[in-house]
Design brief:
By secondary structure, this protein is an alpha+beta fold. It has 2 domains: 235 residues, P-loop containing nucleotide triphosphate hydrolases (Rossmann fold); 158 residues, Coagulation Factor XIII, Chain A, domain 1. Helix content is 23%, strand content 34%. It has a 6-stranded mixed beta sheet, sandwiched between helices. Strands 10, 13, 16, 17, 20 and 21 form a 6-stranded mixed beta sheet that branches. It has a 4-stranded antiparallel beta sheet with strand order 12-11-14-19, with no helix packed on it. Strand 11 and strand 12 form a beta hairpin. Helix 3 crosses helix 4, helix 3 runs parallel beside helix 5 and helix 4 packs across helix 5. The protein is globular. The N and C termini lie far apart (61 Å).
Amino acid sequence: MSAGLLRVENLGKAYRCYGSEWQRVFSWFGLPVKPQEEHWVLRHVSFAVQPGEAIGIVGQNGAGKSTLLKLITGTQRPTAGSVHITGRVSAILELGMGFNAEFTGRQNAQFSAGLMGFNHADIDRVISEIEAFADIGEYFDQPVRTYSSGMQMRVAFATATAFRPEILIVDEALAVGDAAFQRKCFQRIESFLIDGTSLLYVSHDIEGIKKLCSRAVFLKHGRLESIGAAKEVCDSYEKHLFGGGGAHDQQKVHHSPAPKAHGFFDPGLVAECELSYGDGRAAIERVWLENADGLVVNVLSSLEPFSVNYCVRFSGPAVSPIFATMIKTREGIAIYGTDTTRVESYPIEIHPGMVLQVRFVLKSVLAPGTYYLNCGVREDRHDGPVFLHRKVDTLIFRVTAAGRETVGAGLVDMKAVAQIWPVAEEVQIASKACA
């Protein structure tokens, strides 16, 4: 395994029950005592993190994500394997972990920084910066027991990142913050990454992981299911979440007739569907884009109206199926998605053999670039969505600038109109007086 700031080698954690407390004590000294019961929550996990690399960790609840982070930070001891760390680790794990509810935010910040190894002079130098970043006003000098979860997270993050660490570990804590503070946190994380800090980021926000991380780790039932590029691993995780029994892959597909007329169509953008899954009750047979004239296209001009079309053939019963589509960047970050929950009426009594065509009429506000299309059909149940069939990155299309117009930065073209005019002298004087 390659060297790095962090190396995890064959890591495992088991919880054991012994016949007596003496047997448990003997096991502490390495004596061969066999436990009565043994439950492994993490096993055979290995990976390395390089300087400046951001790695996301995904998996369902109970997959072993938090246990992995606790083993890395040393708050728990591994049953098997080892963790090798070069540099200082700063971690934000369970919300408020290590905080004394009776201490003030300031006292907890000072105490936590001391536990991280900093002396009084270092802490005094940054305490005002911690207070400013947390931005909770007079509550900074109030007991933590009076804090909301968001306020606790503010103080915890501000303290953990007051000094740039070599390795930063974040476990879902940012999910409780407001949007403005989350953005401030991510800006600090991004600046740390530029300066060489490595990041381990646990989150259920798949889009956030694809945006922030270059690689990802997928834990399944305590084992390393996959590790690789963030987009591929997140796609694999989504398939695990929504893929059903996978029967779709064995079903015979009857292709619908393709439209004959084509508009601006680039054959170089045609690609096979990267990922397809579902429980086998439906098959999305063909996906295409049409322009306003009804011609099949895969190259559009900015602001040009178009439609997303696909046919669905049902091989089993379905109750009120929902049809959806999503547009993503090359990196797999979702830009826009919609579904038929907003449609007032459509066929809901589905019987085997029925074929439906789905159309979403849209207007392109995308900036010039290359984009990917997802589409799917699902049932929304009380315990979550179930996909009958979903195609990921099934179609590639390109957006071009209309004519010689100037296009701004970003993923969408908002067609802004700039306006500039001189301000009257009396208005300037009034403004200064108000200031």
